Protein backbone atom coordinates (compact mmCIF):
# COMPACT_ATOMS: atom_id res chain seq x y z
CA UNK A 1 0.00 0.00 0.00
CA UNK A 2 1.19 3.48 -0.67
CA UNK A 3 1.85 5.46 2.44
CA UNK A 4 2.47 9.00 1.23
CA UNK A 5 1.66 10.71 -2.06
CA UNK A 6 4.80 10.86 -4.16
CA UNK A 7 3.71 11.35 -7.75
CA UNK A 8 1.75 14.07 -9.49
CA UNK A 9 -0.31 11.40 -11.21
CA UNK A 10 -0.90 8.76 -8.53
CA UNK A 11 -4.48 9.69 -7.54
CA UNK A 12 -5.93 6.46 -8.92
CA UNK A 13 -3.13 4.25 -7.61
CA UNK A 14 -3.31 2.24 -4.43
CA UNK A 15 0.20 0.87 -4.52
CA UNK A 16 3.42 2.72 -5.04
CA UNK A 17 5.62 2.21 -8.09
CA UNK A 18 8.20 -0.56 -7.83
CA UNK A 19 11.71 0.84 -7.46
CA UNK A 20 12.90 -1.05 -10.51
CA UNK A 21 10.09 0.50 -12.56
CA UNK A 22 11.00 3.98 -11.38
CA UNK A 23 14.53 3.38 -12.49
CA UNK A 24 13.52 1.85 -15.79
CA UNK A 25 11.08 4.57 -16.78
CA UNK A 26 13.15 7.50 -15.56
CA UNK A 27 14.44 9.85 -18.24
CA UNK A 28 15.64 12.61 -15.94
CA UNK A 29 19.35 11.85 -16.38
CA UNK A 30 19.12 12.84 -20.03
CA UNK A 31 16.06 15.06 -20.37
CA UNK A 32 17.23 17.46 -17.65
CA UNK A 33 19.18 18.92 -20.54
CA UNK A 34 15.84 20.38 -21.71
CA UNK A 35 15.23 22.37 -18.50
CA UNK A 36 15.60 25.81 -20.10
CA UNK A 37 13.10 25.00 -22.83
CA UNK A 38 10.71 23.37 -20.40
CA UNK A 39 10.61 26.52 -18.28
CA UNK A 40 10.46 28.84 -21.27
CA UNK A 41 7.52 26.83 -22.66
CA UNK A 42 5.76 26.82 -19.28
CA UNK A 43 6.09 30.59 -18.93
CA UNK A 44 4.57 31.12 -22.38
CA UNK A 45 1.78 28.64 -21.60
CA UNK A 46 1.07 30.44 -18.34
CA UNK A 47 0.94 33.85 -20.03
CA UNK A 48 -1.55 32.45 -22.49
CA UNK A 49 -3.71 30.94 -19.72
CA UNK A 50 -3.84 34.37 -18.15
CA UNK A 51 -4.55 36.19 -21.41
CA UNK A 52 -7.40 33.79 -22.14
CA UNK A 53 -8.72 34.30 -18.58
CA UNK A 54 -8.26 30.64 -17.72
CA UNK A 55 -6.19 31.63 -14.69
CA UNK A 56 -6.04 34.92 -12.79
CA UNK A 57 -3.37 37.58 -13.22
CA UNK A 58 -1.96 37.13 -9.68
CA UNK A 59 -1.89 33.38 -10.14
CA UNK A 60 0.07 33.77 -13.38
CA UNK A 61 2.44 36.19 -11.66
CA UNK A 62 3.17 33.71 -8.88
CA UNK A 63 3.68 30.87 -11.32
CA UNK A 64 6.05 32.85 -13.54
CA UNK A 65 8.09 34.07 -10.57
CA UNK A 66 8.27 30.52 -9.28
CA UNK A 67 9.42 29.23 -12.67
CA UNK A 68 12.10 31.90 -12.91
CA UNK A 69 13.45 31.04 -9.50
CA UNK A 70 13.53 27.35 -10.48
CA UNK A 71 15.54 28.34 -13.55
CA UNK A 72 18.06 30.05 -11.27
CA UNK A 73 18.20 27.05 -8.94
CA UNK A 74 19.02 24.75 -11.85
CA UNK A 75 21.59 27.13 -13.27
CA UNK A 76 23.25 27.54 -9.88
CA UNK A 77 23.36 23.77 -9.42
CA UNK A 78 21.14 23.78 -6.31
CA UNK A 79 17.94 22.35 -7.78
CA UNK A 80 16.88 19.19 -5.89
CA UNK A 81 16.49 16.77 -8.81
CA UNK A 82 14.46 13.68 -7.89
CA UNK A 83 14.72 10.55 -9.96
CA UNK A 84 11.42 9.17 -8.67
CA UNK A 85 9.68 12.09 -10.42
CA UNK A 86 10.52 10.50 -13.78
CA UNK A 87 11.47 13.43 -15.94
CA UNK A 88 12.37 17.09 -16.12
CA UNK A 89 8.73 18.16 -16.59
CA UNK A 90 7.57 16.55 -13.37
CA UNK A 91 10.60 17.77 -11.48
CA UNK A 92 9.94 21.37 -12.44
CA UNK A 93 6.22 21.17 -11.77
CA UNK A 94 6.62 19.47 -8.40
CA UNK A 95 9.21 22.02 -7.33
CA UNK A 96 6.90 24.84 -8.43
CA UNK A 97 4.14 23.51 -6.17
CA UNK A 98 6.64 23.14 -3.34
CA UNK A 99 7.72 26.74 -3.78
CA UNK A 100 4.45 28.58 -4.41
CA UNK A 101 1.88 26.16 -3.06
CA UNK A 102 -1.34 24.88 -4.58
CA UNK A 103 -1.55 27.59 -7.22
CA UNK A 104 1.44 25.95 -8.94
CA UNK A 105 -0.93 23.11 -9.78
CA UNK A 106 -2.77 25.43 -12.19
CA UNK A 107 0.14 25.58 -14.62
CA UNK A 108 -0.68 22.25 -16.20
CA UNK A 109 -4.25 23.34 -17.10
CA UNK A 110 -4.97 22.62 -20.79
CA UNK A 111 -1.64 20.88 -21.21
CA UNK A 112 -0.25 17.37 -21.11
CA UNK A 113 3.30 16.13 -20.86
CA UNK A 114 2.74 14.77 -24.35
CA UNK A 115 2.47 18.16 -26.02
CA UNK A 116 4.90 19.62 -23.47
CA UNK A 117 7.73 17.23 -24.33
CA UNK A 118 7.13 17.71 -28.06
CA UNK A 119 7.47 21.45 -27.44
CA UNK A 120 10.67 21.11 -25.43
CA UNK A 121 12.34 18.96 -28.08
CA UNK A 122 11.32 21.36 -30.85
CA UNK A 123 12.62 24.38 -28.94
CA UNK A 124 15.86 22.57 -28.20
CA UNK A 125 16.33 21.45 -31.78
CA UNK A 126 15.64 24.90 -33.23
CA UNK A 127 18.55 26.26 -31.16
CA UNK A 128 20.79 23.34 -32.03
CA UNK A 129 20.05 23.70 -35.74
CA UNK A 130 21.23 27.30 -35.57
CA UNK A 131 24.47 26.21 -33.91
CA UNK A 132 24.97 23.36 -36.34
CA UNK A 133 24.43 25.81 -39.20
CA UNK A 134 27.05 28.21 -37.86
CA UNK A 135 29.60 25.44 -37.37
CA UNK A 136 28.92 24.18 -40.88
CA UNK A 137 29.48 27.64 -42.36
CA UNK A 138 32.75 27.93 -40.41
CA UNK A 139 33.98 24.67 -41.91
CA UNK A 140 33.04 25.92 -45.38
CA UNK A 141 35.02 29.10 -44.70
CA UNK A 142 38.09 27.09 -43.72
CA UNK A 143 37.79 25.03 -46.90
CA UNK A 144 37.54 28.14 -49.05
CA UNK A 145 40.53 29.67 -47.35
CA UNK A 146 42.85 26.77 -48.05
CA UNK A 147 41.47 26.45 -51.58
CA UNK A 148 42.20 30.10 -52.15
CA UNK A 149 45.71 29.91 -50.69
CA UNK A 150 46.70 26.97 -52.89
CA UNK A 151 45.38 27.90 -56.29
CA UNK A 152 48.65 27.00 -57.99
CA UNK A 153 48.66 23.48 -56.60
CA UNK A 154 47.95 20.67 -59.08
CA UNK A 155 47.22 17.13 -57.96
CA UNK A 156 46.27 13.89 -59.66
CA UNK A 157 42.50 13.52 -59.85
CA UNK A 158 41.22 9.98 -59.34
CA UNK A 159 38.47 7.70 -60.50
CA UNK A 160 38.38 4.09 -59.22
CA UNK A 161 41.24 5.25 -56.96
CA UNK A 162 43.40 5.23 -60.10
CA UNK A 163 45.08 8.37 -61.39
CA UNK A 164 42.79 9.91 -63.97
CA UNK A 165 43.38 13.55 -64.93
CA UNK A 166 45.19 16.44 -63.29
CA UNK A 167 42.98 18.76 -61.24
CA UNK A 168 43.53 21.76 -59.07
CA UNK A 169 43.83 20.86 -55.39
CA UNK A 170 41.49 23.81 -54.80
CA UNK A 171 38.92 22.31 -57.15
CA UNK A 172 39.07 19.06 -55.20
CA UNK A 173 38.56 20.92 -51.92
CA UNK A 174 35.72 22.97 -53.32
CA UNK A 175 33.90 19.73 -54.09
CA UNK A 176 33.51 19.41 -50.32
CA UNK A 177 32.24 22.96 -50.13
CA UNK A 178 29.47 21.90 -52.52
CA UNK A 179 28.56 18.84 -50.43
CA UNK A 180 28.35 21.01 -47.34
CA UNK A 181 26.21 23.50 -49.23
CA UNK A 182 23.67 20.75 -49.92
CA UNK A 183 23.84 19.77 -46.26
CA UNK A 184 23.05 23.34 -45.35
CA UNK A 185 20.00 23.27 -47.62
CA UNK A 186 18.84 20.13 -45.83
CA UNK A 187 19.37 21.85 -42.50
CA UNK A 188 17.25 24.80 -43.61
CA UNK A 189 14.42 22.44 -44.47
CA UNK A 190 14.92 20.71 -41.16
CA UNK A 191 14.50 24.01 -39.35
CA UNK A 192 11.34 24.78 -41.24
CA UNK A 193 9.83 21.43 -40.22
CA UNK A 194 10.86 21.89 -36.60
CA UNK A 195 9.52 25.41 -36.40
CA UNK A 196 5.89 24.39 -35.65
CA UNK A 197 4.25 24.83 -32.24
CA UNK A 198 2.86 21.57 -30.81
CA UNK A 199 1.55 22.98 -27.52
CA UNK A 200 -2.22 22.94 -27.27
CA UNK A 201 -2.66 19.39 -28.55
CA UNK A 202 -3.19 18.23 -24.96
CA UNK A 203 -2.68 14.55 -24.34
CA UNK A 204 -4.00 13.68 -27.81
CA UNK A 205 -7.41 15.24 -28.43
CA UNK A 206 -6.96 18.96 -27.90
CA UNK A 207 -8.58 20.78 -24.99
CA UNK A 208 -11.94 22.22 -24.04
CA UNK A 209 -10.34 25.33 -22.54
CA UNK A 210 -10.47 28.46 -24.72
CA UNK A 211 -6.71 28.56 -25.38
CA UNK A 212 -4.90 30.73 -27.92
CA UNK A 213 -2.25 28.67 -29.67
CA UNK A 214 -1.25 31.44 -32.07
CA UNK A 215 -0.38 33.63 -29.10
CA UNK A 216 1.88 30.93 -27.62
CA UNK A 217 3.48 30.47 -31.05
CA UNK A 218 4.23 34.19 -31.17
CA UNK A 219 5.70 34.22 -27.67
CA UNK A 220 7.96 31.26 -28.44
CA UNK A 221 8.83 32.44 -31.97
CA UNK A 222 7.29 29.55 -33.88
CA UNK A 223 6.26 30.45 -37.40
CA UNK A 224 3.13 28.28 -37.33
CA UNK A 225 1.11 25.80 -35.25
CA UNK A 226 0.45 22.09 -35.79
CA UNK A 227 -2.91 21.16 -37.29
CA UNK A 228 -3.85 17.76 -35.89
CA UNK A 229 -3.62 17.00 -32.18
CA UNK A 230 -3.09 13.25 -32.65
CA UNK A 231 -0.29 13.80 -35.13
CA UNK A 232 1.21 16.50 -32.93
CA UNK A 233 1.90 14.31 -29.91
CA UNK A 234 3.09 11.32 -31.90
CA UNK A 235 5.14 13.05 -34.58
CA UNK A 236 8.92 12.90 -34.38
CA UNK A 237 9.53 13.38 -38.11
CA UNK A 238 11.42 16.55 -37.36
CA UNK A 239 13.86 14.52 -35.23
CA UNK A 240 14.29 12.07 -38.09
CA UNK A 241 14.86 14.97 -40.47
CA UNK A 242 17.75 16.17 -38.30
CA UNK A 243 19.16 12.66 -37.89
CA UNK A 244 18.97 12.13 -41.66
CA UNK A 245 20.65 15.47 -42.26
CA UNK A 246 23.30 14.50 -39.70
CA UNK A 247 23.89 11.13 -41.34
CA UNK A 248 24.43 12.63 -44.77
CA UNK A 249 26.65 15.36 -43.36
CA UNK A 250 28.77 12.81 -41.46
CA UNK A 251 28.99 10.71 -44.61
CA UNK A 252 30.51 13.75 -46.32
CA UNK A 253 32.83 14.50 -43.42
CA UNK A 254 33.99 10.90 -43.35
CA UNK A 255 34.82 11.06 -47.06
CA UNK A 256 36.91 14.16 -46.48
CA UNK A 257 38.52 12.56 -43.44
CA UNK A 258 39.31 9.43 -45.40
CA UNK A 259 41.15 11.56 -47.96
CA UNK A 260 43.04 13.41 -45.23
CA UNK A 261 44.08 10.07 -43.77
CA UNK A 262 45.20 8.72 -47.15
CA UNK A 263 46.93 11.93 -48.20
CA UNK A 264 48.89 12.15 -44.97
CA UNK A 265 50.26 8.61 -45.37
CA UNK A 266 53.82 8.26 -46.65
CA UNK A 267 52.41 6.52 -49.72
CA UNK A 268 50.65 9.71 -50.81
CA UNK A 269 52.51 12.35 -48.82
CA UNK A 270 50.28 15.15 -50.18
CA UNK A 271 49.60 16.89 -46.89
CA UNK A 272 50.72 17.00 -43.30
CA UNK A 273 48.22 17.27 -40.47
CA UNK A 274 49.45 19.60 -37.76
CA UNK A 275 51.08 17.92 -34.73
CA UNK A 276 48.47 19.37 -32.40
CA UNK A 277 45.78 17.32 -34.17
CA UNK A 278 47.64 14.03 -34.22
CA UNK A 279 48.69 11.51 -31.59
CA UNK A 280 51.64 9.21 -31.25
CA UNK A 281 51.94 5.49 -30.71
CA UNK A 282 52.68 4.05 -27.28
CA UNK A 283 55.02 1.54 -28.92
CA UNK A 284 56.31 2.83 -32.26
CA UNK A 285 58.33 6.01 -31.76
CA UNK A 286 58.15 7.13 -35.38
CA UNK A 287 54.34 7.17 -35.56
CA UNK A 288 52.16 10.22 -36.02
CA UNK A 289 48.57 9.13 -36.30
CA UNK A 290 45.64 11.06 -37.83
CA UNK A 291 43.29 10.21 -34.95
CA UNK A 292 40.96 13.16 -35.37
CA UNK A 293 39.89 12.36 -38.94
CA UNK A 294 39.80 8.68 -38.01
CA UNK A 295 37.44 9.37 -35.13
CA UNK A 296 35.16 11.53 -37.26
CA UNK A 297 35.08 8.70 -39.78
CA UNK A 298 34.28 6.29 -36.94
CA UNK A 299 31.65 8.50 -35.33
CA UNK A 300 29.74 8.49 -38.60
CA UNK A 301 28.68 5.00 -37.55
CA UNK A 302 26.97 6.14 -34.36
CA UNK A 303 25.19 8.95 -36.21
CA UNK A 304 23.82 6.47 -38.77
CA UNK A 305 22.88 4.26 -35.81
CA UNK A 306 20.85 7.05 -34.23
CA UNK A 307 18.88 7.50 -37.45
CA UNK A 308 18.07 3.80 -37.55
CA UNK A 309 17.15 3.91 -33.85
CA UNK A 310 14.60 6.63 -34.47
CA UNK A 311 13.17 5.11 -37.64
CA UNK A 312 12.75 1.84 -35.78
CA UNK A 313 11.10 3.45 -32.76
CA UNK A 314 8.50 5.05 -34.99
CA UNK A 315 7.95 2.08 -37.25
CA UNK A 316 4.46 0.62 -36.66
CA UNK A 317 3.88 2.88 -33.65
CA UNK A 318 0.13 3.33 -33.32
CA UNK A 319 -1.32 6.78 -32.73
CA UNK A 320 -0.90 8.71 -30.67
CA UNK A 321 1.68 9.25 -27.90
CA UNK A 322 3.40 6.08 -26.70
CA UNK A 323 6.13 5.90 -24.12
CA UNK A 324 8.46 4.51 -26.78
CA UNK A 325 8.86 8.11 -27.89
CA UNK A 326 10.88 8.88 -24.78
CA UNK A 327 13.71 7.03 -26.52
CA UNK A 328 14.01 9.85 -29.07
CA UNK A 329 16.10 12.12 -26.90
CA UNK A 330 19.32 10.20 -26.36
CA UNK A 331 19.60 9.47 -30.08
CA UNK A 332 18.99 13.10 -30.94
CA UNK A 333 21.29 14.53 -28.27
CA UNK A 334 24.07 12.19 -29.25
CA UNK A 335 23.88 13.13 -32.93
CA UNK A 336 23.61 16.85 -32.20
CA UNK A 337 26.75 16.69 -30.04
CA UNK A 338 28.68 14.46 -32.40
CA UNK A 339 27.89 16.61 -35.43
CA UNK A 340 28.79 19.88 -33.72
CA UNK A 341 32.04 18.55 -32.23
CA UNK A 342 33.05 17.00 -35.54
CA UNK A 343 32.41 20.18 -37.50
CA UNK A 344 34.33 22.35 -35.06
CA UNK A 345 37.38 20.12 -34.81
CA UNK A 346 37.52 19.37 -38.52
CA UNK A 347 37.54 23.08 -39.23
CA UNK A 348 40.67 23.39 -37.07
CA UNK A 349 42.33 20.42 -38.77
CA UNK A 350 41.67 21.95 -42.20
CA UNK A 351 42.85 25.42 -41.16
CA UNK A 352 46.16 23.97 -39.97
CA UNK A 353 46.92 21.64 -42.87
CA UNK A 354 50.31 21.77 -44.51
CA UNK A 355 49.88 21.34 -48.26
CA UNK A 356 52.80 19.64 -50.01
CA UNK A 357 52.43 21.18 -53.41
CA UNK A 358 55.60 19.77 -54.97
CA UNK A 359 54.70 16.22 -53.98
CA UNK A 360 51.28 16.49 -55.58
CA UNK A 361 52.73 18.05 -58.70
CA UNK A 362 55.36 15.32 -58.90
CA UNK A 363 52.68 12.61 -58.77
CA UNK A 364 50.48 14.48 -61.24
CA UNK A 365 53.35 14.57 -63.77
CA UNK A 366 54.62 11.05 -63.20
CA UNK A 367 51.77 9.04 -64.68
CA UNK A 368 49.79 9.35 -67.86
CA UNK A 369 47.29 11.85 -66.54
CA UNK A 370 47.28 13.98 -69.67
CA UNK A 371 46.58 11.06 -72.03
CA UNK A 372 43.03 12.33 -72.52
CA UNK A 373 44.40 15.77 -73.41
CA UNK A 374 46.48 14.17 -76.16
CA UNK A 375 43.45 12.32 -77.37
CA UNK A 376 41.45 15.58 -77.40
CA UNK A 377 44.36 17.18 -79.28
CA UNK A 378 43.97 14.66 -82.09
CA UNK A 379 40.21 15.20 -82.16
CA UNK A 380 40.85 18.90 -82.68
CA UNK A 381 43.10 17.88 -85.61
CA UNK A 382 40.15 16.07 -87.17
CA UNK A 383 40.17 12.51 -85.79
CA UNK A 384 37.06 10.87 -84.39
CA UNK A 385 37.36 10.54 -80.60
CA UNK A 386 37.24 6.72 -80.66
CA UNK A 387 40.11 6.69 -83.17
CA UNK A 388 42.24 9.12 -81.18
CA UNK A 389 41.53 7.13 -78.00
CA UNK A 390 42.98 4.03 -79.70
CA UNK A 391 46.08 5.92 -80.94
CA UNK A 392 46.83 7.35 -77.48
CA UNK A 393 46.18 3.98 -75.87
CA UNK A 394 48.96 2.53 -78.00
CA UNK A 395 51.19 5.49 -77.16
CA UNK A 396 50.70 4.84 -73.45
CA UNK A 397 51.48 1.16 -73.93
CA UNK A 398 54.69 2.19 -75.70
CA UNK A 399 55.64 4.47 -72.77
CA UNK A 400 55.00 1.69 -70.25
CA UNK A 401 57.21 -0.68 -72.24
CA UNK A 402 59.95 1.93 -72.58
CA UNK A 403 59.54 3.06 -68.94
CA UNK A 404 58.93 6.63 -70.04
CA UNK A 405 56.44 9.26 -69.03
CA UNK A 406 54.54 11.27 -71.65
CA UNK A 407 56.64 14.37 -71.08
CA UNK A 408 59.80 12.42 -71.92
CA UNK A 409 58.65 11.63 -75.47
CA UNK A 410 59.95 13.65 -78.40
CA UNK A 411 57.97 14.63 -81.46
CA UNK A 412 59.38 11.87 -83.66
CA UNK A 413 58.08 9.28 -81.23
CA UNK A 414 54.63 10.88 -81.31
CA UNK A 415 54.67 10.92 -85.10
CA UNK A 416 55.17 7.13 -85.15
CA UNK A 417 51.68 6.81 -83.74
CA UNK A 418 49.91 9.37 -85.93
CA UNK A 419 50.92 11.79 -88.62
CA UNK A 420 48.68 14.55 -87.23
CA UNK A 421 50.96 15.05 -84.23
CA UNK A 422 52.80 18.34 -84.41
CA UNK A 423 55.17 20.20 -82.11
CA UNK A 424 52.30 21.90 -80.27
CA UNK A 425 51.49 18.48 -78.74
CA UNK A 426 54.38 18.98 -76.32
CA UNK A 427 52.65 21.90 -74.61
CA UNK A 428 49.40 19.99 -74.25
CA UNK A 429 51.15 17.33 -72.18
CA UNK A 430 51.88 19.80 -69.40
CA UNK A 431 49.60 19.38 -66.40
CA UNK A 432 49.12 23.17 -66.15
CA UNK A 433 47.85 23.25 -69.71
CA UNK A 434 45.60 20.29 -69.05
CA UNK A 435 44.04 21.92 -65.99
CA UNK A 436 43.61 25.32 -67.58
CA UNK A 437 41.98 23.86 -70.66
CA UNK A 438 39.01 22.49 -68.63
CA UNK A 439 36.99 25.64 -69.07
CA UNK A 440 33.55 24.02 -69.26
CA UNK A 441 31.26 25.30 -66.50
CA UNK A 442 32.20 23.48 -63.30
CA UNK A 443 35.52 22.27 -64.74
CA UNK A 444 38.89 22.54 -63.05
CA UNK A 445 40.36 25.46 -65.11
CA UNK A 446 41.93 27.98 -62.74
CA UNK A 447 39.65 30.76 -63.99
CA UNK A 448 36.60 28.66 -63.15
CA UNK A 449 37.85 27.74 -59.72
CA UNK A 450 38.74 31.34 -58.91
CA UNK A 451 35.21 32.37 -59.93
CA UNK A 452 33.61 29.60 -57.86
CA UNK A 453 35.65 30.61 -54.83
CA UNK A 454 34.63 34.23 -55.32
CA UNK A 455 30.95 33.23 -55.50
CA UNK A 456 31.24 31.00 -52.46
CA UNK A 457 32.85 33.80 -50.47
CA UNK A 458 30.09 36.17 -51.45
CA UNK A 459 27.54 33.62 -50.32
CA UNK A 460 29.31 33.22 -46.99
CA UNK A 461 29.46 36.95 -46.44
CA UNK A 462 25.76 37.05 -45.97
CA UNK A 463 23.41 35.94 -48.68
CA UNK A 464 22.89 32.42 -47.22
CA UNK A 465 19.72 31.58 -45.27
CA UNK A 466 19.91 32.71 -41.66
CA UNK A 467 17.79 30.91 -39.08
CA UNK A 468 15.53 33.45 -37.44
N1 LIG B 1 9.41 11.66 -20.39
C1 LIG B 1 8.38 11.57 -21.35
C2 LIG B 1 8.98 11.58 -22.77
O1 LIG B 1 10.11 11.90 -22.89
C3 LIG B 1 7.45 12.71 -21.24
C4 LIG B 1 6.05 12.42 -21.68
C5 LIG B 1 5.47 11.39 -20.82
N2 LIG B 1 4.07 11.26 -21.03
C6 LIG B 1 3.38 10.32 -20.46
N3 LIG B 1 2.13 10.32 -20.69
N4 LIG B 1 3.95 9.44 -19.68
O2 LIG B 1 8.33 11.23 -23.74
TrEMBL record:
Q: Which reaction does it catalyse?
A: 2-(N(omega)-L-arginino)succinate = fumarate + L-arginine
Question: What GO molecular function annotations does the UniProt record carry, in alphabetical order?
Answer: argininosuccinate lyase activity
Argininosuccinate lyase C-terminal domain sequence ranges: 368-436
EC numbers on record: 4.3.2.1
What is any Pfam family matched here? Answer: Lyase_1
Fumarate lyase N-terminal domain residues are: 11-305
Q: In which pathway does it act?
A: Amino-acid biosynthesis; L-arginine biosynthesis; L-arginine from L-ornithine and carbamoyl phosphate: step 3/3
**Cell compartment(s), UniProt:** Cytoplasm
Q: Which GO terms describe its biological process?
A: L-arginine biosynthetic process via ornithine
Q: Which UniProt keywords apply?
A: Amino-acid biosynthesis, Arginine biosynthesis, Cytoplasm, Lyase
Q: What class of enzyme is it?
A: lyase
Q: What is one cellular component GO term in this UniProt entry?
A: cytosol
* Primary localization: cytoplasm
Residue ranges that the Swiss-Prot or TrEMBL entry lists as coiled coil: none
**What family does the entry list?**
Belongs to the lyase 1 family. Argininosuccinate lyase subfamily.
Q: What is this protein called?
A: Argininosuccinate lyase
Q: Which organism is it from?
A: Candidatus Schekmanbacteria bacterium GWA2_38_11
